[in-house]
Each structure stands twice: as structure tokens, then as C-alpha cells.
């Protein structure tokens, strides 16, 4: 004699199978991927400086190569390398020289968007930057607004640097 299953057991069994199938399909789905390109306008000295040392080791010069120096950043973020191009936000955070020889810095940076498309959204970038390399890869660890739950990586590339004015343009992809 064949076993008879009650209706509630059939419904529960079907529900469990459906739940497992949905989770398998969702687990195989690819997350949304975006590639953004914008430019940080970095000014290291003068009345319009956008990056400035705030603390360092007593008795030592506070510079980008001096271990223990901490900088604050408030760089304009633009659509093109020109400092006069459309402003889409600010790159705000800290840079800490973390290696004895000054080769590496730890960066904690929020890209705060204020343009129409991404207004109120942020991207959070963090990691070690090998500042003597032209291309530096850091982690995108989070975001808000349109970039909620963002993760991935960002590539910083120095496009230009003027040692006299201490101005640089950094491409962020």
C-alpha cells in the first residue's frame, strides 16, 4: 500500500523545495557592477590647499614621506582632469603615513557626491596606497544611497603633478 501524505505535509515539502530553489538561483545571480571614472583635484599648499597635515611626530617635518604624519583631505571631485570641469562631489578623509620609509600611506576616504545623479550618495574607500607607484589599488568597502552595499576596488592614477605648486590630478576608476 502506498503511503498517503496529508495536504499540509505536501504544502510544507513544496514550500521547502521552492525556498531552496530560489536561494540557489539568487546565489548564482551576478551583483550589479558599475565602473565610474572621475578626478580628484589635490592641492597640497597655499590658501586653497585641499590636503593638509594636522599632526605628526614632534621634532620631525610633517610631510608625505614622514612616518606618523596624518593629513586631512577635502579634494574637489570633477568629471574631467580640468579643475574647471563639472564638480560632482568631494573626496573627504584622512591619509596617514604608515611605513617607516614613507613609501606607504593608509587612506580612509569618502567620496561624497553632490551632483544630480548621485546626490546624497557616498563611496567608502580604504586601504594601503603605495604612494611611489603611479597606479594604486584600494578597496571599496561600502557606500550609501545609490551605492549602498558597494564593494570592490578603486584604482588611483596620478595624471599630473606639479612639485612647485604641489597640485596634482588623480584619476579614480
From TrEMBL:
Keyword Signal (UniProt): yes
Subunit structure, as described in the record: Homodimer.
Chief place where the protein resides: secreted
Single GO cellular component term: apoplast
Keyword Signal: yes
Compartment(s) of residence: Secreted, Extracellular space, Apoplast
InterPro entries noted in UniProt: Allene_oxi_cyc_Dirigent, Dirigent
GO biological process per UniProt: phenylpropanoid biosynthetic process
Family membership noted in the UniProt record: Belongs to the plant dirigent protein family.
Organism of derivation: Pisum sativum (Garden pea)
Signal peptide: 1-27
Name of the featured protein: Dirigent protein
Keywords on record: Apoplast, Secreted, Signal
Role of this protein: Dirigent proteins impart stereoselectivity on the phenoxy radical-coupling reaction, yielding optically active lignans from two molecules of coniferyl alcohol in the biosynthesis of lignans, flavonolignans, and alkaloids and thus plays a central role in plant secondary metabolism.
Amino acid at each position: 500500500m502506498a503511503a498517503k501524505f496529508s495536504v499540509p505535509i505536501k504544502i510544507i515539502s513544496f514550500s521547502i523545495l521552492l525556498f531552496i530553489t530560489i536561494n540557489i538561483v539568487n546565489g548564482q545571480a551576478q551583483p550589479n557592477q558599475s565602473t565610474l571614472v572621475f578626478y580628484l583635484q589635490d592641492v597640497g599648499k597655499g590658501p586653497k590647499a585641499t590636503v593638509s597635515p594636522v599632526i605628526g611626530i614632534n621634532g620631525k617635518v610633517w610631510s608625505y614621506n614622514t612616518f606618523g604624519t596624518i593629513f586631512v583631505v577635502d579634494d574637489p571631485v570633477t568629471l574631467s582632469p580640468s579643475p574647471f570641469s563639472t564638480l560632482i562631489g568631494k573626496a573627504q578623509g584622512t591619509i596617514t603615513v604608515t611605513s617607516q620609509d614613507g613609501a606607504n600611506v593608509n587612506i580612509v576616504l569618502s567620496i561624497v557626491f553632490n551632483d544630480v545623479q548621485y546626490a546624497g550618495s557616498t563611496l567608502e574607500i580604504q586601504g594601503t596606497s603605495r604612494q611611489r607607484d603611479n597606479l594604486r589599488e584600494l578597496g571599496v568597502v561600502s557606500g550609501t544611497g545609490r551605492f549602498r552595499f558597494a564593494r570592490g576596488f578603486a584604482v588611483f592614477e596620478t595624471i599630473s603633478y606639479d612639485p612647485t605648486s604641489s597640485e596634482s590630478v588623480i584619476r579614480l576608476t
